[in-house]
């Protein structure tokens, strides 16, 4: 099974900050990686697929990069609506989620 | 509008059974692969099961293999998850999610239904 490890688990940040979340796969997954945003009591929302493709309707301040085993999600300028938990997901072999990164107010 | 709506969640005793439903609307359900994902209270997301568009291929997480069964009725635009031999650790919100064709990421999610396993 492919394991996904996100860091950090919690990320204190302020509005306007550049935020980077890292996701590592236990083996190569090529570019088969997605990022989701989840707010309390809500379903996850797809942000990025195939490592760097922006989902329709998602603001351009979100970007993804990486391939193989190392991936990053970057928010170029954090907005109030972006405080949430973010999950990476591999889909190279079935599906596995990372443990999540909570972006909280500093 | 493209939508998924889960139902069937309840409080059930350990060892009990439950059937969850996911009703799809606004898209050609029979053309899409579907999954179930769960989230225990205060925890992260866990993939549970997969159903191909024709229901001919299914996959399960090791944690539920042999206890849970996914099925679908394309004529009714519905996906199902039969939960048997339930354990306390199965307590979670259960989401159904659509697979984006050609991408394999989950592009549409339902609002979730809560399953609580407790005596």
Key words describing this protein structure:
heterodimer; A: 106 residues; mainly beta; four-stranded antiparallel beta sheet; B: 119 residues; seven-stranded mixed beta sheet; 11 strands; 0% helix
What would you say about this model in short?
The complex is a heterodimer of chains A (106) and B (119). Chain A is an all-beta fold.
Kindly state the percentage of residues in helix of chain A: under 10%
Structural class of chain A: mainly beta
Order of helices and strands of chain A: EEEEEEEEEEE
Counted by DSSP, the helix tally of chain B is 0
Biggest sheet statistics of chain A: 7 strands, mixed
Q: Biggest interface, which chains?
A: A-B, 24 and 20 residues
Separation, N- and C-terminal Cα atoms of chain B: 40 Å
Rounded Rg of chain B = 13 Å
Note the main sheet of chain B: 7 strands, mixed
Please report which band the strand proportion of chain B falls in: under 5%, 5-15%, 15-25%, 25-35%, 35-45% or over 45%: over 45%
Q: What radius of gyration of chain A results from the CA coordinates?
A: 13 Å
Q: How far from one another are the termini of chain A?
A: 36 Å
Can you offer a commentary on this structure?
The complex is a heterodimer of chains A (106) and B (119). Chain A is an all-beta fold. Chain A contains no helices and 11 strands. Chain A has strands at 4-7, 10-13, 19-25, 33-38, 45-49, 53-54, 62-67, 70-75, 85-90, 96-97, 101-105. In chain A, the strands form 2 sheets. In chain A, strands 2, 4, 5, 6, 9, 10 and 11 form a 7-stranded mixed beta sheet that branches. In chain A, strands 1-3-8-7 form a 4-stranded antiparallel beta sheet, with no helix packed on it. In chain A, a hairpin with a 5-residue loop joins strand 9 and strand 10. The mean pLDDT of chain A is 97. Chain B is mainly β and 119 residues long. Chain B has no helices and 11 strands.
